[in-house]
Amino acid sequence: DTAVSQTPKYLVTQMGNDKSIKCEQNLGHDTMYWYKQDSKKFLKIMFSYNNKELIINETVPNRFSPKSPDKAHLNLHINSLELGDSAVYFCASSSRGNEKLFFGSGTQLSVL
Amino acid sequence: AQSVTQPDIHITVSEGASLELRCNYSYGATPYLFWYVQSPGQGLQLLLKYFSGDTLVQGIKGFEAEFKRSQSSFNLRKPSVHWSDAAEYFCAVSGNQFYFGTGTSLTVIP
Q1: Residue A40 touches partner B, C-beta closer than 8 Å
Q2: Chain B residues inside the 8 Å CB shell of A94
Q3: Pick from A12, A101, B41, B77: most CB atoms within 10 A?
């Protein structure tokens, strides 16, 4: 069973469109994250949720809106997509005390 | 402020040679330290972690890392590299959140 699963794996879309990426974890973790990895492989945290509550919101355009319907899910909705949004987006979850971070396999977003 | 520095952007080694990837961190307390590996098109997989105790930690795939508090370092080592080790390697420190280094890309030549 996949511990952290995110869909879709690839997302190709036009500028100005709205898209969503879904993430689910079956590890029973309370904390979930979204990271953005740019073309230089730099990993930047975007959001962190603990038990459905937003606890980290880094400097991210408000076109990006996370939604956590329950502690096992953290979806990412992106409005009015721009060329610069092209990147790989990773969902992750962590155990209590941040003892380990588990990653999904990533969503490659290409904005044309 | 917490931060992680990986000074080597790219390293090339021959298959069978030894490997050391450098990591320096800045953290106010005793850190939780991690090394992750990312193969092309994949997510990040945990190689090993240090919380406390023995400063030499063993991980998967034959990797080990040594925590040196005096040098604020947590370097990753492997005695003999295999072609399948070619990947991106990330050092991370955990506090109220995880902080990642910029990664080191490893190329293995036959």
Answers
A1: yes
A2: 98
A3: A101
Q: What pLDDT does residue B81 have?
A: 98
Q: Which residue has the tokens 């490893």?
A: B106
**Beta bridge partner(s), residue A43:** A37
- A107 shares contact with chain B (CB less than 8 Å): no
The per-residue pLDDT for B40 is: 86
Are the C-beta atoms of residues B16 and B81 closer than 8 Å to each other? yes
Contact criterion met (CB < 8 Å) for A41 and B102: yes
Facing residue for B43 by CB, picked from A40, A56, A105: A105
pLDDT score of A1: 62
- Count of positions (residues) in chain B: 110
Q: Which candidate, B24, B33, B11, B8, places its Cα nearest to that of B87?
A: B11
Beta bridge partners of A22: A7
**For chain B, which ranges sit under pLDDT 70?**
none
Token code pair at residue B14 = 């021959």
**Contact yes or no for A90/B36 (Cβ under 8 A):** no
Tell me the chain B residues in contact with residue A48 when contact means C-beta distances shorter than 8 Å.
97
CA–CA distance, A38 with B59 (Å, rounded to integer): 27
| Spans in chain A with pLDDT lower than 50 | none
Structure confidence at residue B56 (pLDDT): 96
The reported pLDDT for the residue numbered B6 is 96
